[in-house]
Design a protein that fits this description.
With 127 residues, the protein is mainly beta. It is built from no helices and 11 strands.
């Protein structure tokens, strides 16, 4: 069974930065696209970013463009999400997930296209 583990969350002030990491135990990690989602209490999980299997293509939610950067290191079975210029609205639990194929596709922001999820890492941005 694939294990997906996120880390790197924390509490920062407005304008601060964090780098989230997600490591998957899957031997064929480099065969799957990976995504990051955010969830706050009472709301549905929101797609933040997605990266294709070799990192050729990336997608971002409008709220993340220009501030967040997704990347991956297949040799380490790890995907990263660099969060810069953080705002209170970025607060939430951040989840990493493995897609069922190599590409993000046009529906990358919808959670049903992902097959394995981590437990999440909390990001809190205070003013």
């Amino acid at each position: 069974q694939v294990q997906v583990v996120e880390s790197g969350g924390g509490s920062v002030q407005v304008g601060g930065s964090l780098r989230l990491s997600c490591t998957a135990s899957e031997l064929t990690f480099d065969s799957f696209a990976m995504g990051w989602f955010r969830q706050v209490p009472g709301k549905e999980r929101e797609g933040i970013s997605c990266i294709s299997w070799r990192g050729e293509t990336t997608y971002y939610a409008a709220s993340a463009k220009g501030r967040f950067t997704i990347s991956r290191d297949n040799a380490k079975n790890t995907v990263y999400l660099q969060l810069n210029s953080l705002e209170p609205g970025d607060t939430g639990m951040y989840y990493c997930a493995t897609r069922s194929d190599r590409w993000c596709s046009t529906n990358w922001a919808l959670s049903y296209g992902y097959i394995e999820w981590g437990q999440g890492t909390q990001v809190t941005v205070s003013s």
